[in-house]
Structure formats: structure tokens, C-alpha cells
Design brief:
single chain; about 575 residues; mainly alpha; Amino acid/polyamine transporter I; 2 strands; amino acid transmembrane transporter activity; AA/rel_permease1
Amino acid sequence: MGNNKLFRKKSIDQILLDSQKGGSGLARVLGVRDLVSLGIAAIVGAGIFSTIGLASYNGGPAISLLFLFVAFACVFTALSYAQFASAVPVSGSAYTYAYVSFGELFAWIIGWALVLEYAVSNMVVAISWSQYFVSMLEGFGILVPKWLTMAPAYAFDAHAKMLEVGIANLEGIDRIALQAYETAPRIFDLPIIFDLPAGLVTVFVTWLVYIGIKESRRASNFMVLVKIGVILAVIFGGMFFVKPENWTPFAPNGMEGVLSGVAAVFFAFIGFDSISTTAEESKNPQRDLPRAMIYCLLICAVLYVCITLVLTGMVNYSALNVKDPLAYVFSYVGFDHMAGIVSVTSVIAITSALLVFQLAQPRIWMTMSRDGLLWKKFATIHPKYKTPSFATIITGIVVAVPALFFKMDFFVDLTSVGTFFAFIMVCGGVLYMDHAGLTAKAKFKVPYINGKYIVGLTFIVGLVLVYIYGAPLSGAHDLKLGNALLHNSLLVVFWLVWLALSVLSFKHNFSLLPVIGILINLYLMSELGASNWIIFVIWLLIGLVVYFAYGYKNSKLNTENRA
């Protein structure tokens, strides 16, 4: 019986009824254009303005193909999201979809993993925003004291390094960090160092999200217009500086160089699922959410591919390992005015990405609270502003405090682990929906291609190719023994899941596209580093403690059954 309680499911009718009880209190104001704008705001954020440089440096011009591949991979997931969004048009995103398909325990795990996708990635985005903002102010001749612009760990590391190797041997970030250490005010000889801009922008964006979806929509639409305009200007302006010889060699570090950018490139695309968290604020969610997701992916894929080709055509790929590649390439070709415009726009672009993620997290907590898995306070809707007020404030605190004080480098990959996990659940959920006959409720359906024989045949072909060519697309031989073992065990899990899906597809005539979505996300997941997996597992264990301490007893399904 205990097992059944862990996997108790909510019916679609029940979820829709719960969201309408007494009116959800959220204002339905978003049309397709607003949803596409929110999606583009989330996708075209820190990714195109920062991580694209490092990815191009590792993969060369061929990184444009990786953007195509990742967009293609996301389409399978987006179709699955779209089917769920049209069948279950409520604000919980992948959390709600898992509740319908796999039951309460999995729903909780996904909800907990989504905190990594939204709240933790927002810490990374806030810190990235701070770097751009400080360099933009420097461009205008305004100098912010260094001790107000970074995490304390940088300064302490630089001081320790200086004692070890001497000040003359410090360079780049270490010199700036040492300056912060030496000029910072002190309490009991302890330097006071924190990243003030990262904290302030989080407070500002939280306030905007708190006062209403209409205000957030207006701000988002404006910022998206500005950044799309500048990206088009970069593409069309940069075309005149392209030298085709920069495109050879096309893939200087081979397939491995291209694939090493998977986490960074994928991080650039994760925003499309944030659209599904605004379902209860959409005018016609069943029609508009599926359209918005597909439009977003198409628009962003085209923009990303064009911009990588222009960047790698303007300067040699080997010069692109910089934090602000778009501004850098125009400085490089002597077009400084454009470089200045790009650095101002990147601040606007990253602000809009912050806004969308800061909008998404409270709505997931609100839905979990409505189901009884989190404290009731999280479901409070502000009587005047019609937003989940308490959940929004908590999200602001959860993002702002770490952004002020912590180094967040390793969180990019960690965010991707949580996201891949959610994506796999959503694709798997569509297979369950089809199998359980729940698809009839959806106005949009993933196009059906029978995978009965195809999944198994491709599995055999894949095994034959591995046997002939060795482990494909895998960097395992570069890893230390422990990491290599974990990397290989993750690949073993990938092959075992493919085998299981082959058998189930033969038995149940599974739809091919969600199966491809599961396999692509699982493969990309296996390519992420071992340390991310370990932290992710610890994060999930903490989540399970919270669930069994509170959610299991207080779940609406539990209290209704007892009643």
C-alpha cells in the first residue's frame, strides 16, 4: 500500500478542477506573441552573449552544426511539452506532467530538479549580468570599486596565490581579485567583498515579477525587441567583415571539440520550457503554448547558427575564448561603436533572461503548494497584483543571496543535469499518455510514427557501429580512472535504456519521436562531468528528506483519501 501511495497519480480532470477552484487568481493576459517573446527572452540570454565564445573556441566554425543538432534534439522534447501543455494547461510545467504520468514521488523529484533549472541557473545569469554591467559602466568611464563586483572566494584565492608565487606572476582575473582584497573595507581584519550588481539586479527583477504579469510582459517584449534588433545588426553588420578563410578548418578539433560545447550550447536553449509555467496566464493555452514553443525553437536556432557563422568568419575561432565574444569581434575589426552598442544590449538581453526564469520558479512552487507538497503559503496569490507573492519573494531571496557571495562556475553543468532529467520525464510521460489513452484530452498531439521495429533496429545498428569504431563521440579516454568509470557506467545506462525502449516499443507500438527525445537527452546527460552527477544526487536526496518530512503526509491526494 505504501508503494501505491508514493506513486499515486492525479487525473487530468482533477488537476484542471484544482487550478480552477475559486479561480486560480492569476490574470489571463498572454497571447501567442507574448509567449514567443517570453521564450526568446529565456533562450536568447546569457548563452548567445557569453558561452557561445568558449563553444566556438573549442569546436571552431562547426559549432554552428552543434546549435542545429541541439535545436533538433530540443524539438522532440518541445513537441512532448506541447502535447502536455495542451492536455494539462496549468502552471506546473514538467512537475505537473510527471504527476499525471508517473505519480507523486516522480512529480516531487522533477519539481525539486526544476529548482536547479530555474533558481540555480538564475544565480549564474545574475553573476554573468554583473560582469557585463560593470564592464559597460567602465566603457562610460564609471569605475565601481572591485570589492563590490565579485564573490569573496576569488579575492581570497588571489591573495593566497600571491603569497605563493608573488605579485608579479599574477595575471587577468587574479590581479583584479587581489585589488579587491587589498582595497576592501574590513571588519576585524576580514575584508568585506560581495557582488553588489548581481544582488541588485535580482531584487529589481523580483520586484518586477511581483507587481504583475502585465508589467513583466511589457518589460520582456521591449527587451526582446532590442536584443533581436542588435543580433540582426551583428549578423548583417558582421557579414561585411567575414573572411571565408576563417572557416577553414571547419572542425579543427574534430567531433570531440564540437561536442565539448554540448553543456554550454544546451544551456543556451533550456528556456523554451519556461513558457509552460505561464499556462494559467495564457488567453488560450491549449492552442497557444504548443505554437509558441515550436516558433521559439525555430527562431532561436536560426539566430544562433547565423551568429556563430558570422563570429567565426570575422575572426579566427582560436581568438574567441573571451567572456563577451559579440563585443570583442567588433573591437577586433576596429568597429568600436558597434562593440559599445553590443555591450549595452547584452546587459538588456541577460536582464530579460533573468526575468523569465524569475517568473517561472514561483509558479512551479505555487502549483506544488496547491497539491499540498509544499507549505500553503507558497500558493498565496496577491489580491491586487494577481501574482504568487510569497513564492516570488522567496525565489528572490534564494537567488539574490548566493549571487552576492558565491562562485557559480560549476552550476552551468549542474543546471543542465536537472533540465535533461526533466526533459526525459516529459518525453516518457507522453508515451504513458498515449498508452493510457489520455491523449484524447490533448488538442495538440506529437505526430505519430510507429516505433515498433525502428527503435530496435537502430539499437542493433548502434551496437554494430560501436563494435566497429569503438565508443563513439565519447571523451572517456581523456578522463581520470574514477571519472572514466562513472562516464562509462552512464553510457551503459544509456544503452540499457535504449534496449528497454526497443522491447517496449515492439510490445506497445510506442510513438517514435518521444523515444528519440528520451535517447538524445539521456546521451547528452551522460556526457556531463561526474562531479555534476554527484552534486545532483545529493540535491535529490535533500529533496527526498523534505518530501517525506512534509509532502508525503500533507499531499492533497493523501488527505482526500483519508477523508
